[in-house]
Amino acid sequence: MTGSSIPPGQSPAAQPASAVRLDIPGDAAVTHRDVAANGARFHIAELGDGPLVLLLHGFPQFWWTWRHQLTALADAGFRAVAMDLRGVGGSDRTPRGYDPANLALDITGVVRSLGEPDAALVGHDLGGYLAWTAAAMRPKLVRRLAVASMPHPRRWRAAMLADARQSAALSHIWGFQRPWIPERRLTADDGALVGKLIQDWSGPRLPDDKALENYRRAMCIPSTAHCSIEPYRWMVRSLARPDGIQFNRRMKRPVRVPTLHLHGSLDPVIRTRSAAGSGQYVEAPYRWRLFDGLGHFPHEEDPVAFSTELINWLKDPEPDR
């Protein structure tokens, strides 16, 4: 890890290698390795050969949330790579650099480090926010864009400020603005809150107990809780700051790559109406897919349906509106 102090309340019980370099279900064996990008080191899990599909996790998870899609994408003829974002899983915990513009540079830097000219980005939750950002800021490195459970950043900002119900649904983000208390809560009782959040945010098809155990353990790696919520602190605290206003202006740039937008109808974190308006920021084929009966984690709640939708779209040479 790069140098950063361990915030109070962090458990030393879990260590990165044992907590995040996991096998995935089935016979396929992922390759774990580290790549350098944007001044930091990032852990990736890789499977398959073909056009690159880079998978970006959200909160409170790490690369393993894409275990089902890694296998499905590799079987479909893609080079599937799931990375741990800065500060999470097996990637470096740096003392700064958690604003979305820099995190997007992490992502495009990993694409370059993998020796590829571009990638299809697939992001969930925070990973989706960053995928939107990367597609707007570095369009030459993004071949296609697929986002789950996250509106476009400008849509997210507007909903947070103007939609009382959406703001209430994101109450955990407002709670993250307090110093140290959120870190302590996330790591207390071996990460029990992580499991509760995932259960509360899921639809009827909950992730299995083993998955929850893995997410809880990974959150207890020293400094992970602090780093995991730093992007959300920036997103709120910068709303009226020059850097936040500048970022919002930069995100006026339209997304000009084919975009697939996936959402669960029962998502209690991101309201459907908040996500559904994101197509106005895309000047390319845009496809909206609402999964009936799924919550905030559609790729885990119904991995077959999610993977099928994703792969069919990736293989469609001319995805239409």
From TrEMBL:
Keywords: Hydrolase. Signal peptide: none annotated. It comes from the Bacteria. One of its GO terms (molecular function) is hydrolase activity. Pfam families: Abhydrolase_6. InterPro entries: AB_hydrolase_1 (IPR000073), AB_hydrolase_fold (IPR029058), Epox_hydrolase-like (IPR000639). Residues 53-306 form the AB hydrolase-1 domain. The keyword Hydrolase applies. This is Alpha/beta hydrolase. It comes from Streptomyces calvus. The lineage of its organism: Bacteria, Bacillati, Actinomycetota, Actinomycetes, Kitasatosporales.
